[in-house]
């Protein structure tokens, strides 16, 4: 009896203890795709160990649920709702007696079925709506390869030798890491510094505008984007890379990056010092800023953006390296981003410092085609350019409530530049007789400051697709340059010296651009599928430019103002624009059309001569956009847009530029704004099961009042050109690509083509000139891979260029070829041998008859060391046969140019690369979560 009583008391205590250990489960069920809460959803909690029922409840009219459940170390959560796919998850119960699940997202069955998913061994490719998602672990790369090596493996993506990425034939404009801008999405930092093994998925998609993503109202804007999704392991620890390299002829390549990620909080720093041009020389944020040589454009959607134009004063170098000369680069940066308070607040900041020095030896041979003759110039030049630049960008987002968001962005830059140039130019006629000679030196020291600020507010209303967007913008750009120009020019008649001139001047240039803008838009649903948008834009841009030239006086000072080559000018542009767009969205089809009208006022004032000019322009902007999903794996898109471009202050101010005494530019205060009509069409398809992809597209641009040139070429060979408006300028392009994997093999094959056709109208010595500049490229691709044995690729291409000038019906045509191949062999003892080769073949012509063919061969041997192959020792030789030649040939207008320059040639490099990773205890190792194999297939 006593034992029975004790057992009864024990059971009673256990029962009371169990009741005391009940857990309150709460949360909210939502459908983010349709911006709605979900009511009457059933929420069930089971014991994850034995699937016994612990409790259940239902969501109320606001999607919220709260109920008491039994306790267990881990819960199996099951949520079901009518019309929605079942949601399951395993969660820790915690020890506080409460379990707040936050927002739980359900997807409609229709949405889930629209996602065609194929996961081969450990995953391969997932197509979700308009997003192609690659499982990174399914594409084998070297243990410590960078992201660029991974991207080269992905079907439908191409990465050229400069690191530029193309996806389905379109240039990738933005690269994100976990949805965040990372060092201002500079591909050199992201692709060549981050480790491929840290990447879980690579997502390729057409990113909608920030306003469209928030409001759910598609505005038709798209940006080709790659998002690198990190593995969970790397979100909870630190990882990085240190690379040290030194070699022959003074070459060095050093790099370090450290990443500390804690969930949504990311901190990264990096540093680079190199003169090999392989890292640290890409600069992708130039378009974020304006300059004295930039012009404002208004897109068909009414958004303002800026296009950089080359300044004729030679001061526009921005530190970018395009392969010309011998570079040295020092760079450092820091990144911090975080989301907190249930993602209500978000901050993202980037800072970078760059120092880049480039020494260049250049030889440029130019053929000028005139009505009844031609003449040629041969220019030899040396230059040294240096820039120190600080850039800072920041973003702050605050979701003030579930339907509103405030966003602030800032970009700033400060730079100091130094340019030193010396050149010798000789011009000759067809007979070979001298026309002129010019020996010139110039130096310029300058500063440049830029700041760009945006403040926006977005609001979603309770009624679906009803929204409001407000934005204020401010941009300021200023330059200050000072330097000297020295030139001795000799002119000949029938090969006999006729006259000489000298230039000895001090140049002082100042410019400033202030732009204020505002955008207001409102969307209203007019049916379940249709939305109308009304949008107003305002912009006020003030440009000030002072370019002063001082001649050297008898006393040796530079105090005599040369008014012919000096200006003090104000150019203000004010634009009002109002437009309406109608948008329809169906299951497979979305399209829109609209129209807008604008009023633009030019106010010009010449401060030197006290002259004023005011003009007004009116424009009408029709627009159309269509996206049609032919199947789950293919889509078709069409777009028509129109935008205006204003002349720059450099083009419109009435001043002569004599920095090149043989090519003098003259501004034109009567210039009108351009209007560009742009049409594009594209198609892409990817069949996952066969590994076959197809993409094709094309477009055309027709420009009214295009800002072109009217040239007057004297018998002495001096060319004076003025900016003028012309009609009839056009350009068009076509591209296509196809690829597949040969069934039963590891061989991938593909082909691609690009066609560019343009007509450019100018005036030469009073006669209209039509210049056709066309290029046609065909390329092939073949790749074979056997894991841990060989990786081989072969990519040949051929290009044909055709240039025709109507004033003398003389065409210059030539072809070039560039076959490229690479191989990587895996050897025992963790040795690897790799090699890549390219053969650049350029056809000789009657004018350009020198041999410019170049065969480049690089090779390396490497050895993996330490646990996990974290350390790599590598010895490489580049340009083994010492044949590298800087070379460029192109046609433009009535000129054909061939340029050769010094560039990096043969060198050897010994490197040590250490990739390190630290993961706190308890985190899964790489690949642990990918052991679950799943195959879901629907449709073909």
TrEMBL record:
Every Outer membrane protein beta-barrel domain range: 459-913
Q: Where is this region: Disordered?
A: 414-447
Look up the domain of life of the source. Bacteria
Q: Which UniProt keywords apply?
A: Cell outer membrane, Membrane, Receptor, Signal
Q: Where is the composition biased (Polar residues)?
A: 414-424
Q: Where in the cell is it found?
A: Cell outer membrane
The residues forming the signal peptide are: 1-20
InterPro entries assigned to the protein according to its UniProt record, in alphabetical order? Beta-barrel_TonB_sf (IPR036942), CarboxyPept-like_regulatory (IPR008969), OMP_b-brl_3 (IPR041700)
Keyword Membrane: yes or no? yes
This protein's name: TonB-dependent receptor
Give the organism, scientific name: Rurimicrobium arvi
